[in-house]
Amino acid sequence: MIKQLVKRGFASRWGWRLAGPILRRPGVIVLTYHRINGVTRDSGRDTLAGMAVEKFAAQMRWVRDHCHPIHPDEIRDHVTHRRMKPPVLVTFDDGFRDYHDLAHPILKELRIPALVFVATSFMDEGGLLWTETVQWAALSTKKSRVTLPWSGEQVPLPDARARDALGEKARAWLKAVPDGERRAAVDAFVAETGAPPDRGREMLSWDEVRATLDVTTYGGHSHTHPIMSRLDRAACEREVRTCRDRIAAETGVTPRYFAYPNGRPADYTAETQAVLHDHGFDIAYTSSEGIAGAGTDWMAVKRLPSEAPQLADFAWLAAGLMRS
Ligand SMILES: [Zn+2]
Fold it and tell me: What is the pTM of this model?
């Protein structure tokens, strides 16, 4: 209760101006977004739902008023500068269609640049990210129990919560196995749950990518969204090269920024970083939480999650105070 009042005061114009420079960690606040949703869903358990567009718009207005939104090319210049308004870089992972439909109009109106990391096979071929396919297969199954193809374990599914937990469990297992094994296991899992209903096209098309280039820089996020650390060198090179070449061919701009799929320290290696470097990528973003300050490792830049219940919590988060 008191904490919420403190947070609310902090998020206000004067609170942020006065307390911000003292409390805030210096450096660039790199915000991470994924899906933005047009309808406010409060099921809470639909992990595919994304952030309500109203919440996103409120966060962006707050950023416009209280921070200094920067272009992705400017990040190196801002990590050490101390300014009244903290520099903020807005990033999106994966390349969902709702970036074009819902997020881009807001960013354009507010003149906030964004860096969007796309996994290019989905622009080329359609389909869903494999992690989303697995979650959707689990959420939409009609079965009352399924057998995990990799262990033979029987998982009872009495309710929506159990189905959601099944998706989480399956994804965690699949992220940890070699990529070739993972692909076959995803197919087996989807087959076991029964074919999930079609969600329609959910990822950006190349036309939509081109239509948003005014405020958007496109970065790489691999071709098929594998866990990079589970690839051998040849496959890693293929993922990075294909992704880079497809973005360059479709937008006319060769990408120099990359975000690791999943982005935890276990999801990329020194070899991944070497391959990226060889292919002209000079900044790579992770999902590790933190502010990009002085001494940032440019091949492992930290970011902040954007999911916060209230704007006051978002300001708290943006200040690098996280969950304290
Ligand atoms: Zn991703």
Answer: 0.89
